[in-house]
């Protein structure tokens, strides 16, 4: 398994910190992991590790758009029509805006590839009082904990489609908690963003694929 964790701005630093729970699950399940952090998340470094170890699971955290996903300081890691073949024959979870709509579709032309991601912007809210303590941010937790469920469920042995649905179920639970006003850090302004994440989180390609 390879995970990328750039941390050059508030958004990527939150993804960096909240990925701790994915890494903890990988350790618990004795999954070998290459953790590319900070300045190490470059295209050359990423491609080198993928070609060397041929992972069956890749997690990409970072900015992006429909055609590419980024690493440290928004260097393009993988771009549709350029080097998307690097993601072939694996399960990919890209926590990156819109990449499933173009890059993901290109990747799954290989029948042995699965791409879980978002075909529109991925949203989460931040508490400005917690910017330097992301794991204490209950607002961000409402968004990042459900998305972590994709990777954690895969590491527990669920199929890609099951992992995607389990994650979406967690989003739905948080929506209901906000509607019932039963959760700390949640307010009505989150609802449109959560609903968007729910509607645009997709599993493309081989939904039966497993990483364990």
Provide the fold topology.
Layout: E1 2-5, H1 10-18, H2 20-28, E2 34-37, H3 43-53, E3 57-61, E4 68-70, E5 76-79, E6 91-95, H4 103-107, E7 114-118, H5 138-155, H6 160-180, H7 191-200, E8 201-205
Short description:
This protein has 212 residues and is of the alpha/beta class.
Polypeptide structure, described:
The structure is a single chain. With 212 residues, the chain is an alpha/beta fold. The chain has a single domain, classed as Rossmann fold (3-Layer(aba) Sandwich), CATH 3.40.50.1460. It has 7 helices and 8 strands; from the N terminus they run βααβαββββαβαααβ. The strands form 2 sheets. Strands 2-1-3-6-7-8 form a 6-stranded mixed beta sheet, with helices on both faces. Strands 4-5 form a two-stranded antiparallel ribbon. A hairpin with a 5-residue loop joins strand 4 and strand 5. Helix 2 packs parallel to helix 5, helix 5 packs antiparallel against helix 6 and helix 6 packs antiparallel against helix 7. The longest helix has 21 residues. The relative contact order is 0.15. The mean pLDDT is 96.
């Amino acid at each position: 398994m390879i995970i990328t964790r750039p941390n050059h701005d508030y958004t990527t630093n939150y993804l960096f910190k909240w990925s701790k729970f994915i890494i903890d699950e990988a350790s618990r399940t004795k999954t070998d992991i290459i953790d590319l952090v900070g300045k190490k998340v470059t295209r050359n470094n990423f491609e080198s590790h993928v070609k060397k170890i041929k992972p069956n699971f890749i997690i990409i955290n970072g900015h992006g758009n429909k055609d590419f996903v980024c690493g440290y300081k928004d260097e393009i890691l993988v771009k549709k029509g350029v080097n998307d073949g690097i993601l072939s024959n694996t399960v990919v979870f890209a926590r990156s805006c819109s990449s499933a709509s173009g890059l993901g579709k290109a990747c799954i032309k290989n029948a042995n590839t699965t791409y879980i991601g978002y075909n529109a912007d991925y949203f989460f809210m931040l508490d400005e009082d917690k910017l330097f303590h992301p794991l204490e941010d209950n607002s961000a937790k409402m968004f990042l904990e459900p998305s972590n469920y994709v990777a954690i469920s895969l590491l527990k042995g669920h199929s890609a489609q099951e992992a995607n649905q389990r994650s979406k179920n967690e989003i739905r639970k948080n929506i209901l908690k906000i509607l019932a006003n039963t959760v700390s850090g949640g307010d009505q302004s989150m609802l449109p963003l959560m609903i968007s994440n729910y509607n645009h989180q997709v599993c493309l390609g081989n939904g039966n694929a497993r990483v364990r």
